[in-house]
Amino acid sequence: xxxxxxxxxxxxxxxxxxxxxxxxxxxxxxxxxxxxxxxxxxxxxxxxxxxxxxxxxxxxxxxxxxxxxxxxxxxxxxxxxxxxxxxxxxxxxxxxxxxxxxxxxxxxxxxxxxxxxxxxxxxxxxxxxxxxxxxxxxxxxxxxxxxxxxxxxxxxxxxxxxxxxxxxxxxxxxxxxxxxxxxxxxxxxxxxxxxxxxxxxxxxxxxxxxxxxxxxxxxxxxxxxxxxxxxxxxxxxxxxxxxxxxxxxxxxxxxxxxxxxxxxxxxxxxxxx
Amino acid sequence: xxxxxxxxxxxxxxxxxxxxxxxxxxxxxxxxxxxxxxxxxxxxxxxxxxxxxxxxxxxxxxxxxxxxxxxxxxxxxxxxxxxxxxxxxxxxxxxxxxxxxxxxxxxxxxxxxxxxxxxxxxxxxxxxxxxxxxxxxxxxxxxxxxxxxxxxxxxxxxxxxxxxxxxxxxxxxxxxxxxxxxxxxxxxxxxxxxxxxxxxxxxxxxxxxxxxxxxxxxxxxxxxxxxxxxxxxxxxxxxxxxxxxxxxxxxxxxxxxxxxxxxxxxxxxxxxxxxxxxxxxxxxxxxxxxxxxxxxxxxxxxxxxxxxxxxxxxxxxxxxxxxxxxxxxxxxxxxxxxxxxxxxxxxxxxxxxxxxxxxxxxxxxxxxxxxxxxxxxxxxxxxxxxxxxxxxxxxxxxxxxxxxxxxxxxxxxxxxxxxxxxxxxxxxxxxxxxxxxxxxxxxxxxxxxxxxxxxxxxxxxxxxxxxxxxxxxxxxxxxxxxxxxxxxxxxxxxxxxxxxxxxxxxxxxxxxxxxxxxxxxxxxxxxxxxxxxxxxxxxxxxxxxxxxxxxxxxxxxxxxxxxxxxxxxxxxxxxxxxxxxxxxxxxxxxxxxxxxxxxxxxxxxxxxxxxxxxxxxxxxxxxxxxxxxxxxxxxxxxxxxxxxxxxxxxxxxxxxxxxxxxxxxxxxxxxxxxxxxxxxxxxxxxxxxxxxxxxxxxxxxxxxxxxxxxxxxxxxxxxxxxxxxxxxxxxxxxxxxxxxxxxxxxxxxxxxxxxxxxxxxxxxx
Lengths: 273, 765
Known about the structure:
The structure holds two protein chains of two kinds. Chain A has two domains: 32-119, Immunoglobulin-like (Sandwich); 126-147 and 155-228 and 236-251 and 263-271, Sandwich (Immunoglobulin-like), CATH 2.60.40. Chain A starts with a helix and ends with a strand. Chain A has helices at 2-13, 225-239; strands spanning 17-21, 32-39, 46-51, 53-54, 68-73, 78-86, 89-91, 102-109, 112-119, 126-134, 157-166, 174-181, 184-185, 190-193, 201-202, 206-210, 215-223, 257-271. Chain A has two helices and 18 strands. Helices cover 10% and strands 44% of the residues of chain A. By secondary structure, chain B is mainly β. Chain B is 5% helix and 58% strand. Chain B is globular, with a radius of gyration of 27 Å. Chain B has three domains: 2-118, Immunoglobulin-like (Sandwich); 120-208, no CATH class; 222-764, Beta Barrel (Maltoporin, Chain A), CATH 2.40.170.20. At the A-B interface, helix 1, strand 1, strand 4, helix 2 and strand 18 of A face strand 44, strand 45, strand 49 and strand 50 of B. Strand 1 (17-21) of chain A pairs antiparallel with strand 50 (744-750) of chain B.
């Protein structure tokens, strides 16, 4: 909304102006950032640990080495330890999650312990992907698009991809769509909840920028409620569109930032026509 | 027995005769155009009783023992008129006062009415003089009553591009803005650059900074009581103005000469018309218009009927794809009835509507979202002028509120993703203005207010984590809230020139605006009490010292206040403004506000104006925000200074300057950054822990009166808004630097710097 207001005043009075200013932001105590992903597919589970920086520092986020990372299946009571493959990245290729099971992530850094719980929902099948090319700046309005008005000057086209799937009626369901364009992760966060369409088929589109011939991979993930809330907050935070800017509510305890996501995954790739 | 009769005739009878009282009553108006005058003083000369003032319909009534009196009628800017009467029976005296024939609009103040501030019992009250407004520099040359009010201590504007204002630390929805008794839910046009009140149509504005007497209620911070003109009942007149961005026209005249009249006044901006002519912006639009109309009819000497209405609309459109339009509509039907010379009655039927509509045009699925709040309102008030020392007001008020939040309409269907809400707000009240002693004046009253949350839509039960555990749907009322609101203010006159006042008031509020903490938008949500959302309660104590100097040439006041607020509402962290059940996104807590307000005003001479300073603090404490600690509310501003000067150079030229300085709003900024999901994101440490840069601005204005003709006069007014081009921030956002992606920078958006304006105002008689 406020963007529209700024733009309107800009064209009405031709006098709105933007400039970079100096703001004396406080130093913050460095905090750990944990990104835990547990998939139902092999070789996809990964935990990454880094640290925050002060606002004025150059962006090379320090990765944290030497942490003890374990994931426990709370139903089978089975604990796996992940190995540090490269600095700050912890994996175990054989580790896969089971639908309906609840998992605990435990990260020990020095004498600090962080824990998080996430439940892997039951898998929902992605039936089909439908693509449509949008004209002009339509992608800037409406749900899903994070496009900023006025940023449509480049040559890329707006593509609308509609994942079709049927939402199960007997449960609350939350979905995340992770989009990769020619092997590069698309930054936009696409999340959906079944509030308002529980049990029916979904035709809510995802809007992305792409060129003809690009390969777009859509990873449809079923996630739990806390993970959904985390990504909702993260998206508002990144777009600075929140009514009340704050760190997204994490499911990790002890003041760590980030999330632990146990999810089911189904990847489909389409070529843009 | 004979002796008794004798005794009676000798002693008792004369006493009875002496004690016999009679009432003088009538209406006070402007002699030339018949407009009734609100708050005109009627003084009983050389007597201990102080007299009275005319009410909001120009009616006065004073009861005095039989005898001979000299009565003085006076009003700011008008020549005092005195009459001698011998009071042996009830008398009706209607008085027409004549305006001083000096420079039009020049504020001439008569000694008797100017020290009203000293003598009246109420405190925290500001009257905005329409004459002052016409001289001050304003944006785009459009004089504005609400903007002028924001230059008074304790009243703060939201800043450039922010609609609304705050009073004594309250939030913007805690102001009850009444236009001829009709509540106005959004009092701004063009996102706060203009107010909805066209000053050509305004007779009187009174602001109560949380200290309003018991006839007002429903908001906890202030009451802005705006009364429209009635229209000239003597002659037809046309006046208007042509400016760079907008034009306006005002037509008024008698229906029955000397008795009934009408008034129609309208404004429209025309930037959109010019935009259509340009290639680049032809599909864009930003405009508003509004229309005020009033008609009054004299049914009899004891009955008057008033019909007034307001309609205004703003529109903002982008690329023919995205459009918002919003506006208020109000209609008031009022009937004044005089039961007798002491009992005045006013019955009002009021309708008020505020809505906004968002249009999304696209090829696939064009749709619109409508949000609306409607009120149907009945008000009955009696004023009883029992004797020269007591005035009573009592009455009731019933409002039916209906809120339609975010109704989505497309080609096929209409859908309500949010629950429709209905409620009934009612109140009964009684209040007494009592001249207790020669020096002590007391206003006390009680308001009993009730709010019924009506059923028929879904209400929720939430657990501690704000998740819905149960949904209730019933046709019976869901919840009822009852509140007692005592009001008391005392004024003690120290001497002719100074007084001391103290007040305590409790106000409650049943309608709440949920605002985004960054900017205010016309699309902010109005909600009402539910089973979960409780009425806001505000308790304020205030103390003031008032002193006039040099024969009332200077007016000084110092007021302090402490306000405690309960059931304050704020969004939780990372709130989802579009959540279907808004209750799941809200947190409740308390607030406190305290401050000192200093005002020095010069009322007479070539140089007039004022100097205002406010030192204040406003904080909230809400469980779930900032580790449950007290934190600065967005509108917390430590310092607030305004300097307003007007200078008459000659009969034809006058110049003015306004300078304001305000501590920046409290705001949430990041204190660090990190990477998650492949993206840089901001690390926040607390809500409202930072400040926007201070806001300051100088505006200059000048008015030149063109040669006056017999039936026509006009003037040119020039203005320069933000004369030294201060780039006041509208928003500050944080992003990766364009030049070095590894660096992060803060980007400030300012809406504008210097804005010159010229407008031509005219009047035909």
